[in-house]
Write a structure and sequence with these properties.
Helices cover about 45% and strands about 15% of the residues. It has about 400 residues and is α/β, with parallel strands linked by helices. It is globular and about 60 Å long.
């Protein structure tokens, strides 16, 4: 089996930006992540063994001088000491355990120092997705020519509708080639079609380098979840914003607010942070309802919401993005992060519904026990974590399930 991931920056920017903030603010934290397949997929025999081989092969994937030069040019907010860390970073397969049960369901656990384990998530999800299609023979159904034509048309329609949009599709892409095909189509669309919209880049740093566009992204729920495990969910958003601001000094100012729902975030979102952060990302719940809550909050703080960016990234497709653009444009500066709909849209191939979530954390390696944590989505049924932990967090936050 060929090696699926062969470039160090074939990964989402937010993993690098979070890694830097973790070293800066929580250098001794230890975490445990767990793989979740929301479709309860039965994987082919031997899948976990091949996945383990792919993970072991990552040890040879190191950052190149070209990748560092690109990031220095495009990611000015990253301090130079961080590149020294990346130069010395090696993927350690001992931090990951992959297995299958008797029925073929997949289990993957990642455990170790937060700064050592944080760069596994996106690469593992991309490997699992591509490997599944290879081992089930579905990779033969991937029509890349049709994907290019469809993607070009998606790009044209989004540009003509005035959408600012980027590719967020690394984690559940059908293959590396699939994401590359999408990037080729989107950059071609941006060149050939005029419209008020724009293709702003991709979350994938390697793809951004190949096509010389901006790598985009800030943080994931993981950052807030870990802080909630260490210090409790009531002030987790506030502590996360404080830590983020300490590292980035106002750069990378898009905050992902929905880890524990709107209500507790709103209480944590004081005027100083509302002014410092450029905007918010909507990743769950009803997009229009969430936007209304955001607009009302900004107005209550005396801030014009039309000066603030709102990034929508909740299961979008072309139609939904265009519809949302029309709705949101009078109220804020909308933009769109589109993932699976770009990189895994093939006739007869079903995209995987897989995630890796941080579910336990220790403040330092000397602690004798982990603190459990979870994520409480605005979408019912998408809460992730031990049901007892979810209940405990909901009670703490006075949420009604």
């Amino acid at each position: 089996m060929r090696q699926i991931i062969t470039h160090f920056t074939d990964d989402d920017l937010y993993k690098f930006t979070m890694c830097c903030a973790v070293i800066d603010n929580f250098p001794r934290a230890v975490v445990r992540y767990s793989f979740i397949d929301r479709d309860n997929t039965v994987y082919p025999p031997g899948f976990a063994d091949e996945l383990t081989r792919q993970i072991e092969a990552l040890a040879g994937v190191v950052i190149s001088r070209e990748e560092i030069e690109f990031m220095k040019r495009r990611c000015a907010y990253l301090p130079y000491w961080f590149y020294d860390f990346l130069k010395g970073y090696r993927y350690d397969a001992r931090l990951v355990r992959a297995s299958q049960d008797d029925e073929g369901h997949l289990s993957v656990v990642i455990e170790g120092a937060w700064c050592d384990t944080i760069l596994f998530e996106v690469k593992l999800l991309a490997i699992i997705s591509e490997l599944y299609y290879i081992m089930t023979g579905q990779d033969r159904r991937l029509d890349y020519e049709a994907c290019y034509r469809r993607s070009l048309d998606k790009g044209r329609r989004l540009l003509e509708a005035g959408c600012s949009f980027s590719d967020f599709g690394t984690r559940r892409r059908a293959s590396v080639r699939s994401q590359d095909t999408v990037m080729r189509a989107m950059t071609d669309a941006a060149r050939h079609y005029s419209g008020p919209g724009r293709f702003t880049g991709t979350s994938n740093v390697y793809m951004a380098m190949c096509y010389d566009v901006m790598p985009v992204g800030t943080m994931a729920h993981e950052f807030i979840s870990a802080i909630a495990g260490m210090y409790g969910p009531q002030m987790a958003n506030n502590l996360a914003m404080k830590a983020w601001a300490a590292t980035y000094r106002g750069a990378l100012g898009t905050f992902l607010y929905d880890t524990y729902g709107w209500d507790i975030f709103s209480l944590n979102f004081s005027e100083d942070y509302a002014n410092m952060f450029k905007g918010l990302r909507v990743d769950s719940g009803d997009n229009r309802e969430q936007l209304q809550l955001i607009v009302d909050k900004y107005r209550s703080l005396g801030i014009d919401p039309r000066t603030k960016q709102v990034i929508f990234s909740n299961g979008l497709n072309t139609e939904r993005a265009i519809e949302l653009q029309r709705y949101a444009a009078p109220m804020c500066i909308p933009s769109f992060g589109i993932g699976t709909h770009f990189t895994n849209d093939y006739a007869g191939v079903r995209p995987m519904n897989i995630v890796i979530k941080l579910l336990a954390v220790k403040i330092t390696e000397s602690w004798t026990f982990y603190n459990d944590t979870c994520k409480l989505s605005e979408d019912r049924g998408k809460h992730t974590g031990d049901p007892a932990v979810v209940r405990r967090f909901m009670e703490t936050l006075h949420m009604h399930g």
